[in-house]
Amino acid sequence: MAARASTRVSIAWSGADPIEDTDTLVLTIDGYSLDLRVFVSGPDEGKIDWSTVAHVGEVEGSTKENPILKWDHIIDSRPPTDMPDQGKFETLPNGDVIEIGIMHNPKTNLYEDYVETWRRMKLPSSSPYVVLESQEEGVQAYLGRVGEHALGLAKSKDEEYCAWRDRLESGEWKRICEFGSAVEKLLPRLPSDLPVEWSKGETVHLNGDSKWTVKTVGKL
């Protein structure tokens, strides 16, 4: 599949019971990963837990049955760490997927074993997908869509992280959440219907003068 949308069901750190205190959406599109995780409980409710845009690919030892994937971050809402972002995947009998690996736990400031459970969202056949990139004036920004799900993620030259999440309802985009003082300037909305003339490598305009490069576009 060239594109998919996933939500996280739970995470378990260092063998502890699984929890889920975020609303997480990950769009995996033709080698790109756009990821936004927002706390829905606890002292940081309503804030970003973690958000990234990354190139994603398989690493040595990966198999069709048990892929091992690595994410090379392009932008990141968290400070960089020395630990590679990679995990091994296994499909459960109910169709959910578990990811097993080691990563930095910001709550303990330690590198810990983790097990995440992911659920693939159902998508109608012929759902559109797209990734757009903008690197104007020292800003790295990305827009991604898979079916009715869309993310806008950007990091400005002063290190501010901006993000939004939209869902298509009755032919119109509904804003689920947004973050950052420059979000409207850096991250315009996607059109509800992808223009048929958009093609990979083309420069397109959003909101007038906003220039974006089409990194990939198509239908499932």
From TrEMBL:
Highest taxon above the source species: Eukaryota
InterPro entries per UniProt: Hri1 (IPR031818), Hri1_N_sf (IPR043047)
Pfam families: HRI1
Name the UniProt record assigns to this protein: Protein HRI1
